[in-house]
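Worked problem 6 (solution included).
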Amino acid sequence: MGLADDGGLIIPESIPDVSDRLDSWRELSFGSLAFEIIQLFATDIPESDLRELIERTYGSAFEPEPAPTLRVGDLYMLELWHGPTLSFKDIALQLLGNLFEYILARRGGVLNILGATSGDTGSAAIYGVRGRKGIHIFVMHPAGKVSPIQEHQMTSVLDDNVHNISLAGSFDDCQRIMKSLAGDLDFKRKYSLGAVNSVNWARVLAQTVYYFHAAFAVQKDTAAESVRFCVPTGNFGDVLAGWYAKQMGLPISRLILATNENDILSRFFNSGQYSLGEVTHTLSPAMDIQVASNFERYLYYRVGCNADRLRELMDEFARTGSLRIDVSDNGVVDETFIAAAGDKSQCLAAIGKYHEQYDYLLDPHTAVGVAVAESRGLSGDPVICVSTAHGAKFPAAIEQATGKDLAHHPAIDALDGLETRCESLPNDAEAVREFIVKTIG
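Solution. The predicted structure is:
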C-alpha cells in the first residue's frame, strides 16, 4: 500500500529507541544490520522468513557490497549505487520486490503497481519486480525530463509485466496523477493498486539502514561521537530516512539538506514557508521536484503529531500552493536541519574539482550535495555525503564539467542498441486510468 485510504501517508505507530543496541550492531554486515532494524517494524513477517528475504536481497544483487563508505578529501562518501540500476533506489526496491512477492504468495491475488519517477525510481522499481508472478508495474516519467540513459534503463525492459508511460508533463504531474488514482478507492481496490514510490513506508524504512551502517564505519575511522549527513533530495524520502534514524537514537548531529534550483525544501527549512515555484529542468533531474511527497510525514511530527493540524496545513497547501509553520524566536525551523541549494555552476564545479583533485567521479545529484556540504563549512563532526547514483548515468553533465568522456559503466554501455517499449500519454489522469484498464483487463 502506498497512500492510506484517507489520502494520507502511513507512519509507524511508534519509533523505537535503539540507542542501547548500537554497540552490539557496529560490526554487523549490511544484511544482518538490515534484519535487526527492519524486524522492529515488520512484525507481521516471521523472523526466519524476514531474515531469508533480506539475505536474498543483499547477498548477490550488489557488487561489491550494498553501501560502502570511503573517505574522499575532507568528506566521506556513502556510495549507494552498487545495485543493478546504479542508483540508491536499488537498496530499498530490491527488497520491496521480494517483499511484494512473498506477501502475494501468502495471501494470493495480484498487485498492480503505479509509480512516478523523476529519473531513478522507475528503473530501480522495474528491476525489482520484472518477471515476478502476480505483479504488473506501470511507471510514469515526465517526457523529455529524465536523462536519456535513465529513460533507456526503464524502456529497454521488455518483460510482459512492465509498462512504461511517457507523460506530457513534469514529475509533479506524474505524482499528482498517481495520488489521484490511488485516492479513487473503488478503482484502487478493483485493480489492486500498490506503490513503490517513497510514499510506500517500506521504502523509507529500508533506507534507514545505510545511515546506521555508514555512521558506524565513520565513527570507527574517526572515533567521533556523532556524525553529520549531507543528503541531496527532491522528494524528501532519503533525508527523511536519516531523520528517522536520528529519532531511533543514531548519533546524527545535523542533517544537511541539499536541493538544486528547485529549492522548495531548502526555503522551508530557512523560513518556515513551504510554497510552490515553477519546476526548473536541471542537470540533476531526480531532484527537479516542487511537491515533496514525504514532506507531510515530517510535518506531522513537526506539528506535535496533531493529525487535525496536519490536515489543515495540507488542505491549505492544496488550495493555495503555500503553507507556513511557526518558527522559533531565532528563526530556526528545526535544529536538526541545515538546508541550502546548489546551482548548476556549483554542481559542475564540484564534479570538476573532485575528478581533478581526487580522481573521483561525482554524479550531478551527489555533486549538489558536495557543493552544499562544502559551502556550509566542514569543521566539526565528520560529514558523510550520500552518493545517490553512478556518474555513468549522466554523461552530458560529466563531460560538461570535465571536458572528457568519462561517464561509463558496463551496465550502462550494455544498453546501447537495445529495443525499447513505451506508451506516450497526455497529462491526464483519465488517460492513465484507461491505459491501466486496457492493459490488465
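Discussion: The chain has two domains: 69-85+202-410, 89-199+417-440.
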